[in-house]
């Protein structure tokens, strides 16, 4: 890439915003940031669809958009009266921070950063480069394209057939509407999943005034653990442990018994990507099958204030977390499910079912027009475990024939199959800073890049 090159960034959420910001920071090529939903520009789903009661699950000190200026967001929050370094700030506030940062970059970049509204539905290679085709018929010529699709909507959970259920009963994507609409205190709600999405939906229902019963159901019934107030940062490992997976689990358990499980998990944080890179496909598959749910609930924690609200709902009998399996759901809301390790099933009636299973990454099952076209044309392929889009260590997309494509790249959560830890702000900002620096041919030293 040269300063005269043109890069199209497809997706204007957090990952796309970080790419645009970093290309400008490093004096890189001219860029077009393409986003189909203007209201979510610069914020994405996580920060554009939140309500004020939903808090970040990372303290302000860890949420800067700039890896070489870790205090940037904390200073911004303090200047706006929204807390300080150790606070868990509202997600809506963080969305405002992202939008303001992008607007500042746009003002500084001028014509070198264009923001366009539209939906990309296809990519075509020409003798001159790549053309991004939009749903309205427009085409945007580029020398390279960076895909930032964020998280794909969840798949339908086992035991549920969306086509057989009325729209007012089943909510397939919890971020697209009001999950509390039309509910009364006599109604019951089923949240399919017990992770962070279920926590968000329980908080949304509570904030809306819903006083009925909520059942959060997943295979193991595991709910996210809480952060501790005032816990100091932990010195992380320098190198990934050279241990088989079973022995590594044992070491983490022993460390947890000695110094607390939070410290034991946090010590792995700096080396998880490198551990994943060294692990073979069989080891990765074992981790996903046996350990992923446990890792997720210990790694991705709740702000203490959020955990207090959830605990209060549980204590009041309004929210229940359960382990089990959905057997069937009728069109009138009659739910049959079997608790884990139980022989007998349970039957209850629910007024609404919300799919909280979390984002999925199997691109072979996606309905996104652009991704479907790229799959059909062999320009992208799933990673071996179908966690996302197959990329190499430099974020180049691997084509169906196994070759890395220099003009097609991908960053953000859909690269989790290659790096695993790529859903949190610190990981995505570092990935985008690294790629932005390389595409800009800039020299930068910071946070291991």
Describe this protein's structure:
The chain is an alpha/beta fold and 449 residues long. Helix content is 32%, strand content 18%. The protein has a seven-stranded mixed sheet. Strands 3-2-1-7-16-15 form a six-stranded mixed sheet, covered by helices on one side. It has a three-stranded antiparallel sheet with strand order 4-5-6. Helix 1 packs parallel to helix 4. The C terminus is likely disordered.
Tell me the overall shape.
globular
Overall pLDDT, averaged? Answer: 93
Largest sheet: 7 strands, mixed
Order of helices and strands: EHEHHHEEEEEEEHEHHHHHEEEEHEEHH
Structural class: alpha/beta
Terminal CA distance reads 19 Å
Enumerate the strands of the largest sheet in spatial order, edge to edge or round the barrel. Answer: 8-14-9-10-11-12-13
Number of helices: 13
Helix % is 25-40%
Unreliable stretches, pLDDT < 50, 5 or more residues?
A: 442-449
Radius of gyration: 22 Å
What proportion of the residues form beta strands (DSSP E)? 15-25%
């Amino acid at each position: 890439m040269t300063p005269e090159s043109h890069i199209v960034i497809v997706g204007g959420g957090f990952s796309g915003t970080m790419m645009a910001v970093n290309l400008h920071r490093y004096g890189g090529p001219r860029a077009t940031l393409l986003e189909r939903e203007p209201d979510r520009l610069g914020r994405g789903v996580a920060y554009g669809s939140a309500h004020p009661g939903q808090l970040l699950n990372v303290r302000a000190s860890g949420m800067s958009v700039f890896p070489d200026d870790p205090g940037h967001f904390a200073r911004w929050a303090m200047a706006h009266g929204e807390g300080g370094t150790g606070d868990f700030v509202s997600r809506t506030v963080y969305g405002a921070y992202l939008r303001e940062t992008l607007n500042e970059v746009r003002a500084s970049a001028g014509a070198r950063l264009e923001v366009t509204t539209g939906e990309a539905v296809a990519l075509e290679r020409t003798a001159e480069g790549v053309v991004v085709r939009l749903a309205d018929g427009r085409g945007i010529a580029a020398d390279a394209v960076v895909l930032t699709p964020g998280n794909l909507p969840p798949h339908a959970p086992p035991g549920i057939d969306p086509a057989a259920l009325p729209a007012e009963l089943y909510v397939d994507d919890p971020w697209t509407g009001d999950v509390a609409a039309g509910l009364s205190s006599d109604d019951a709600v089923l949240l399919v999943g017990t992770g962070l999405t279920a926590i968000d939906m329980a908080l949304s229902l509570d904030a809306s005034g819903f006083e009925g019963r909520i059942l959060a159901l997943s295979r193991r019934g595991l709910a996210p653990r809480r952060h501790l107030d005032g816990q100091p940062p932990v010195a992380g490992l320098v190198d990934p442990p050279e241990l088989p997976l079973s022995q590594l689990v044992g070491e983490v358990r022993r460390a947890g018994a000695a110094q607390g499980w939070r410290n034991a998990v946090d010590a792995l944080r700096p080396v998880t990507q490198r551990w994943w890179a060294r692990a073979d496909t069989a080891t990765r598959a074992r981790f996903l099958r046996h350990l992923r749910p446990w890792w997720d609930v210990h790694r991705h924690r709740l702000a203490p204030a959020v955990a207090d609200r959830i605990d209060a709902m549980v204590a009041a009998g309004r929210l229940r977390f359960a382990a089990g399996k959905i057997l069937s759901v009728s069109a009138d809301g009659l739910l049959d499910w079997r608790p884990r390790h139980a022989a007998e099933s349970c039957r209850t009636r629910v007024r609404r079912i919300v799919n909280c299973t979390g984002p999925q990454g199997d691109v072979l099952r996606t309905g996104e027009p652009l991704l479907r076209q790229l799959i059909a044309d062999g320009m992208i392929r799933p990673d071996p475990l179908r966690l996302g889009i197959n990329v190499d260590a430099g974020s180049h997309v691997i084509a169906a024939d196994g070759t890395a494509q220099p003009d097609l790249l991908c960053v953000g959560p859909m690269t989790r199959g290659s790096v695993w830890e790529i859903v949190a702000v610190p990981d995505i900002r570092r990935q985008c800073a690294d790629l932005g620096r390389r595409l800009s041919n800039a020299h930068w030293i910071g946070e291991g890049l």
